[in-house]
Design goal:
By secondary structure, the protein is α/β, with parallel strands linked by helices. The protein is built from nine helices and 16 strands. The chain has two domains: 155 residues, Rossmann fold, CATH 3.40.50; 158 residues, Dihydrodipicolinate Reductase, domain 2 (2-Layer Sandwich). α3 packs parallel to α4 and α4 runs antiparallel to α9. The longest helix is centred in the middle third of the chain and has 18 residues. The N and C termini lie far apart (57 Å).
């Protein structure tokens, strides 16, 4: 049996996280093999990395069996690849994804999909024209606390949702290589890089809103925060996103959703359900969302299964909302 050949492009924290998961999945599936890694700095490939919420160790791995590149175009010219994982800075997502699809590779790329709506459109048009599959890694769609809410809505467990609040706050992200996250032209600012998580959850749970209003701030960096409200029929939603906070502040993510029969709150992944009879903490499966999203991509590109959770068309709806907010919130 010929194994599917793939590469990882971008081997920072997220690329290394995907590498760990892919090594596990390779052993389980037996029908795929990593053949190449592309990274601007080859020496950094073997180095451990500290992310904002966790660390990734690269000890006890033999990288001599992989072909290493600093130029993704050279890699694609020399390697016959069935699919690629892209974990590059946001401003490179469109350029690299489009090139890889045109060279015959299916593409998984990290969020955000791209930093302009025009780039998102180009990526989707290229996927349609080439017949290649495209997935954007919105890991919250696979995360316990959000899947719990999705199931509650679909199963009408607590009646209809009436109002929802999302909040995501972070110290100013000085950790990105060369400071690219703080360069709004490369990252899109907080709106496109971090706020996009909660907008995606809103769109995934409730669909696209009818109307959006937003106020933004630009003190520590351009588009460092957003305070947005959204209108739906019989539902109101608000989202706060802020990374213009001093460095000693710990990362925090919350949601609070009021249903007809319950108020459900999540603080950094801990979910509490409040009803008139009392409160409880539901037992959650304890999934690894980044592992599960990779499994969905592989099930699609190797086994031909449809994207159940991360269909790129719904991600495009998320990006349309985010870019509308960015237009409304210009400094």
């Amino acid at each position: 049996m010929d194994k599917k050949r793939y590469a990882i492009i971008g081997f920072g924290g997220l690329g290394k996280t995907h590498f760990h998961n892919l090594m596990k999945i390779e052993k389980q599936r037996g029908d795929m093999e990593l053949v190449a890694i592309c990274n601007e700095d080859l020496e950094a490939i073997t180095q451990n990395v500290q992310l904002n919420i966790t660390a990734v160790s690269m000890e006890n791995f033999d990288f001599s069996k992989y072909n290493l590149y600093t130029d993704y175009k050279e890699m694609l010219a020399k390697e016959k690849l069935d699919f690629v994982f892209i974990a590059l800075p946001s401003f490179l997502h469109c350029e690299v994804a489009v090139y890889c699809m045109e060279q015959g590779a299916d593409v998984y790329t990290e969020k955000p999909m791209a930093i302009t709506l025009e780039q998102c459109n180009l990526m989707m048009e290229t996927a349609q024209r080439t017949g290649k599959k495209l997935m954007v890694g919105h890991c919250l769609r696979f995360t316990d606390e959000y899947v719990f809410i999705k199931n509650a809505i679909q199963n009408n467990t607590y009646g209809k949702p009436i109002k929802a609040e999302f909040s995501r706050k972070s110290p100013i992200p000085n950790w990105s290589a060369g400071g690219w996250l703080l360069n709004e032209e490369k990252s899109g600012g907080c709106l496109v890089d971090m706020h996009v998580h909660d907008v995606d959850m809103m769109v995934w749970l409730f669909g696209a809103p009818e109307e959006v209003q937003v106020v933004t701030s630009h003190q520590m960096s351009s588009f460092e925060s957003a305070y947005a409200i959204y209108r739906y029929p019989n539902l109101s939603v608000s989202i706060i996103a802020d990374w213009g906070i001093q460095s000693s502040f710990p990362f925090e993510a919350k949601y609070a959703i009021t249903f007809e029969d319950a108020y459900i709150e999540s603080v950094n992944g801990k979910v509490t359900v409040y009803t008139n009879e009392g409160k409880f903490e539901p037992e959650l499966p304890g999934v690894d969302p980044m592992y599960d999203e990779v499994v969905e991509f592989l099930n699609a590109v190797i086994d031909g299964k449809p994207f159940k959770t991360a269909d790129v068309n719904s991600v495009k709806e998320t990006m349309k909302v985010v870019f509308r907010e960015k237009e409304l919130g210009k400094a």
